[in-house]
Amino acid sequence: MNSLAKITAHGSYVPEKIMNNQDFEKIVETSDEWIQQRTGIEERRIANEDEYTSDISYKAVLDLQEKYQVDISDVDMIINATLTPDYKTPSVASYVQAKLGLKNAGALDINAACAGFTYGLNIANGLITSGQNKKVLVIGAETLSKITDYTDRGTCILFGDGAGAFLVEYSEDETSFIASSAGSDGDKGHNLYSSELSETMFGEDLENPGYIVQNGRGVYKWAVGNVPKIIEATLNKANYKKEDLSWFAPHSANARMIESICDRSGIERDKALMSLKYYGNTSSATIPLSIDLAVKEQKLKKDDLILMVGFGGGLAYASTLIRWTI
Ligand code: COA
User: Fold this and answer.
1) For 85-128, how does the pLDDT look when each residue is reduced to its tens digit (9 = 90+)?
2) CATH class (in words) of the domain with range 177-323
3) CB 155 less than 6 A from any atom of ligand 1
4) Does the reported pTM lie above 0.85?
């Protein structure tokens, strides 16, 4: 008997408070024009002071349940991808497990920054196909506003808060998962970090403890150079060509960066699904939020071939080539 893993539902949640580019003009020296031109971002959502990653993760799962009327009472694993957990311990996933009252679910957080959601999906596929689990919730959720320095114009305009969730279930006859790749260029990790302490990393001083610090140019260059290779490697594993893709769902960090990745990879720009225009860079949540928007816009059809590529802090990456099974 086959043990296959199938995506059966998805949901999302974003905080109510909107911060648009004009709001940034009031707090740092920037302009709506600069932000739109360099990033494509128009607005982002900001969590309330007492609203944490577990709260928005939980709400994304409620949205999933409401949209698809799926029974999640027998979920046996919750994977929360996040770099902004409420606490070091308990995990966000444990909070979500308690809030949902899922008595039989294991719970763990993973941190692969902006690649967290695609790592999470691939782990869920592995858990199900190996027979360990039958119903896995994969959540990508961030409250990046809590670690954003709103005096640093180079980073504060980029980030936002949000959550997305997928349900991955055991199936005997249908799989969503076709091929995946993952890796990390850890020696370049100092280009994007957030540390509690002011220390050194690979001999370089760490700045601004508690907040996100980024060498924007460094990350940009790495991403446009490497993501096309990840795309190629993943497609090659399954003997697919770029032309076969229905959609490309990259980590939604910067529209210019994604356009450049598309051009270098030979993927038509209008196949790229993005969430950054409305939500900014929400790290592990960008990909499920892009999928959610695409569903709302009625772009996705059953059996569409979608390549998701998460990349960022680490500098780590993970891709997953899926067949849309909803
Ligand atoms: N508004 C106006 N000017 C700004 C600005 C802002 N918000 N942020 C930076 N600048 C200025 C800089 O101070 C610099 O000025 P100077 O020439 O007088 O020194 C100038 O713009 C160029 O700065 P630079 O950092 O080289 O800009 P850039 O073209 O690389 O754009 C990013 C900056 C952050 C938009 C861009 O590097 C980027 O998006 N990188 C990838 C980041 C990313 O996606 N990270 C997440 C991956 S997971």
Assistant:
1) 999 999 999 999 999 999 999 999 999 999 999 999 999 999 99
2) alpha beta
3) no
4) yes
